[in-house]
Amino acid sequence: MTYQTEVDFHPLYELALSMTVFTHKKSHYDLDKQWFETMEAKVSPSFKEKTKDEEKLEYIGYLMILMWKCPKKNSLSEFLQWFHEFSVGEIYEMLIPYLGEQQPKDLGAFRDFYSELLVSWNDVYSMEEKKINLLADMASFLKEKSQTMDPVDFVENCTNGIRIFPMEDLHHVILVPSYHMAPLNRIYDLNHTLFVHIPIDQPSESSMIPSISFMRKTKALADAKRLRILQYLSDEPKTFTEIGKEMKLSKSNLHYHLTLLRTAGLVRITNYKFKQPDKYETRPLGFSALKEDIESYVFENRVKF
Prior knowledge:
alpha/beta; four-stranded mixed β-sheet; 15 helices; globular
């Protein structure tokens, strides 16, 4: 028995996710510093004040589920109109299959909080049409691929190295392409469902310019510690603790190196839906892809000097 996979995309997802990326302000996103600075200057003081409520921000996964269920997604106003048609009890009934131990204490406050935030964010930020089209095209492509691939292999392929094995309490994996989250994945564990944002890289404007994903892979190899980690993981999967002891690295330092290797697709995480510690191992498919990228860039796109 395995789980079902579903690929879905709508600009509303990316509106909510771009807002979440901004509120977290992490440096390891592909978005440049200027994007964060520009948005910081645009958002209102009330928006900044609301986003200090970290507890409510943690429930973004439930908002994603409601967006997934919403039949009216042509605009934010349509979604919000649909969202506000329901009583708190009806919202609870929609969410109850996905509610885990941690859940909003007040669904009315949850609805008002995200409604106000999304309106404020939508007033100051709009995504370029070409990026929306890129995500929509990728979603269509992945939907076709999902019809012919084993679900576990398909999820690993989409996430660039997260291998989620079937479990009795895992029924559904929803995969949503994302631009703002790149190169990271975000996974919401919603009871029997995983809602997964999968990063999509912006293609290079010219074949002479190395792609972001290509540069990510070469950067991942440009460090002796990361090369040693790859060598250590080449025989069998290891836990984070085992790697730290062998490499004699602090938790934060090891997390940094493993993140670079994982987002480059060179390391795979074996995940049992958070029931057991993640295990890391080298990912042969990533090395094959790197070889192809190097040969393609160097030999197929070469220019005469």
